[in-house]
Amino acid sequence: MTDETEAIRAQLSRALRDDPPIVPWKVDVARLIAANVATCLIVVAAVSPWQPAHSGDGLWWLTAGALVAMMFVGSALAIAPARKNAAWIAVGLAAVCVFLLVRGADPLRHASVWADAECALAEIAVSLVPAVLTALALARFAFQWLRAWVGGIAAAATGALVLHCTCVNESVVHVIIFHLAPSLLVALVLVAVRSRMTSRSFAP
Description:
mainly alpha; 7 helices
């Protein structure tokens, strides 16, 4: 074996040794879901008193279930190996969440537009950790805007669920401006940030 061949083998061995270990995509999904659930539980447990609006209604529980499903399904579909049109399932689920949140609000209540405006900041803050973890996980693959958007919506669903469990402002205007709009903002920012991150591979 020639010295040149030995040198090539040595370089390849160093490259393989220095590369980060390959993490199965299911591990990334499990981490994201765990981060989402842990963040939600910690924040909701820390809020006192726990006084969600309409918590005794079946629609309230249905909405909460849809947001939880968005957290799980969105995280999975954002990271799972490419499957044709699979991410659009999460888009449809997001639309269901929007419908239920608006449907559960009170259209007859005319609260001040700026009442409880801190909900927007709270949702963004709660969604920050899941959003960062989602961006890092997505950087393992080639950038796809739909995957990033779905991951962003899944992260934002964490903040939306916290507000759903703690906010007492039932105004439909409040829900749209300070609950739904921040969720969209989180998703759009994640898409923008991920588009500027260096992909560690070009796998779809």
